[in-house]
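Q: Given only this backbone (564 positions), what sequence would you predict?
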């Protein structure tokens, strides 16, 4: 049989696979326990991409010699190719431990650990491989594993080592650029991406990463020009149209931005990110009712037909939802399911005229105006019915209030009418600012309200709609506004989340506050950069006595980078 086996190997070496297979089979017919014949037959099948046959053959070989490292490694590769990744890892790990001086075994183990997202184990395996055989591939994949651990500086060093060994290893050049991008070294990242694009200008992901770097550098026009190229190269990829939207939207090119989202939604009609962005962009483009209709439709699609409360909800949300179910039952509406009141536009005006508001705004320092009798009676009553009856109060905050956001369906024609009339009735206040964001908050009468913060906008409109007889302390229950603005070099997480830092800043600057007491149908219009918080609340218990305020944000906060 040794002569036939030698003949099989010779045929195998000459790629005469059919004849070699017959020879291996002749050996196995006579000697079914021949490990080498089974092993080489498995290799032959593997070379022919006959994965199932190869796995069967190598398993026969391992029945004869269970600790054969090369057969275990082959089994691991076959299992990995068939998607049985954990079994593959076990086989490859055993092979590497049986043959610890083989760098290729540790390298393969690193690859399969990386595929399993076991980044720490992958790094350890690549380190073993590199100690034995420092290849550019091992350095490159070690860098990828380190990126999985968010250890970008170490990853960059690995990519540099790979490129020192193989300067033309383009995947390592790309990975190095991405590491620089994550490290905030944007100019260096652009240089790396440009090197790749000189090599191959069709690399769409590289163009995308270059545009990202330019976006982060606030070089929006350059980023927009690149995204034009990206969507030309890959017009069927929705995410590139969404990225292009983001750049155009930052440049306030709203109509082009919306058209870009329409392209994304034509490719992926259910893309939630694109739907939400489209609603926001329509509002900023002045097409407020269209934008809010997008949000309402999205809320109905997301929540429609399901219970709006769950056992894991916090206690104050469960309390609110129980009260709302009772209210809706009294209106003859099936309780517990998602429901939207119409919130229709009202005939005539929704926002009452106020002859002095714009003069007060111009003369105030800081910018703050209080308007009483803000909404017409029909608008106030319609908005109350909408807020009491709509099950959009989905977001629970720890301090005891609930939020209704556009993305949960908080958007109706009446709210659009109010926003439109604010801009037209008070042009000197809003100065062409568009509606950027909007929400409602509903408070638990026994708990506190929103802590001190500023908002990311130019003008804040905050108005209250709960009847006055619900407020047990007419001197309070409204809004506290300080005369100091959030520093322009603070980001949103600082001025809208770091309460201790804000309190210290207010104390250090000697800021003074103004308390605007609660009144039903009172609006407070002020510069969104001013720090503010909910005043102390003392309201009656009961569903219709819950304090409700609605906030509309217009325009964009001035940024130190752009001056806009």
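A: Predicted residues:
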């Amino acid at each position: 049989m040794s002569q036939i086996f030698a003949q099989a190997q010779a045929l195998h070496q000459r790629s005469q696979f059919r004849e070699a297979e017959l020879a291996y089979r002749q050996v196995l017919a006579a000697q079914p326990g021949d490990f080498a014949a089974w092993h080489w037959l498995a290799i032959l099948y593997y070379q022919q991409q006959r994965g199932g046959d190869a796995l069967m053959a190598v398993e026969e070989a391992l029945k004869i010699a269970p600790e054969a490292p090369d057969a275990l490694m082959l089994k691991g590769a076959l299992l990995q190719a068939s998607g049985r990744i954990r079994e593959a890892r076990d086989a490859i790990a055993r092979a590497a431990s049986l043959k610890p001086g083989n760098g290729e075994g540790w390298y393969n183990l690193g690859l399969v650990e990386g595929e399993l997202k076991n980044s720490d184990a992958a790094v350890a395996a690549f380190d073993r491989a590199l100690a034995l055989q420092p290849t550019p591939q091992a350095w490159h994949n070690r860098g990828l594993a380190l990126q999985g651990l968010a250890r970008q500086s170490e990853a960059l060093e690995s990519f540099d080592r790979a490129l020192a060994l193989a300067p033309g290893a383009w995947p390592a050049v790309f990975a190095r650029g991405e590491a620089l991008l994550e490290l905030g070294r944007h100019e260096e990242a652009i240089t790396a991406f440009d090197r790749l694009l000189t090599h191959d200008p069709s690399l769409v992901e590289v163009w995308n990463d270059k545009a990202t770097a330019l976006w982060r550098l606030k070089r929006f026009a350059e980023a927009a020009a690149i995204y034009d190229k990206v969507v030309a190269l890959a017009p069927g990829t929705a995410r590139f149209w969404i990225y292009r939207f983001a750049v155009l939207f930052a440049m306030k090119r709203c109509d082009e931005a919306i058209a870009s989202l329409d392209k994304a939604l034509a490719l992926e009609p259910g893309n939630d990110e694109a739907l939400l962005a489209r609603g926001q962009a329509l509002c900023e483009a002045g097409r407020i009712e269209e934008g809010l209709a997008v949000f309402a439709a999205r809320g109905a699609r997301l929540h429609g037909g399901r219970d709006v409360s769950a056992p894991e909800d916090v206690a104050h949300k469960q309390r609110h939802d129980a009260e709302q179910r009772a209210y809706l039952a009294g209106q003859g509406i099936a309780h517990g399911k998602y429901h939207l009141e119409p919130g229709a536009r009202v005939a005539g005006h929704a926002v009452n005229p106020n002859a002095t508001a714009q003069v007060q705004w111009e003369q105030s320092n800081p910018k703050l105006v209080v308007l009483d009798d803000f909404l017409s009676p029909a608008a106030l009553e319609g908005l109350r019915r909408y807020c009491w009856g709509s099950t959009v109060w989905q977001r629970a905050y720890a301090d005891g209030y609930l939020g209704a956001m556009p993305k949960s369906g908080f958007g109706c024609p009446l709210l659009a009418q109010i926003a439109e009339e604010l801009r037209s009735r008070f042009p000197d206040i809003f100065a062409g600012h568009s509606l950027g964001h909007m929400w409602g908050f509903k408070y638990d009468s026994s708990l506190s309200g929103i802590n001190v913060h500023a908002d990311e906008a130019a003008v804040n409109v905050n108005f209250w709609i709960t009847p006055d007889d619900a407020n047990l302390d007419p001197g309070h229950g409204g809004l506290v506004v300080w005369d100091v603005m959030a520093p322009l070099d603070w980001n949103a997480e600082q001025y809208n989340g770091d309460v201790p830092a804000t309190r210290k800043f207010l104390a250090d600057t000697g800021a003074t506050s103004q308390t605007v007491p609660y009144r039903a149908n009172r609006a407070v219009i002020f510069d969104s950069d001013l720090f503010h918080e909910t005043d102390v609340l003392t309201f009656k218990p009961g569903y219709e006595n819950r304090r409700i305020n609605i906030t509309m944000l217009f325009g964009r906060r001035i940024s130190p980078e752009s001056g806009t």
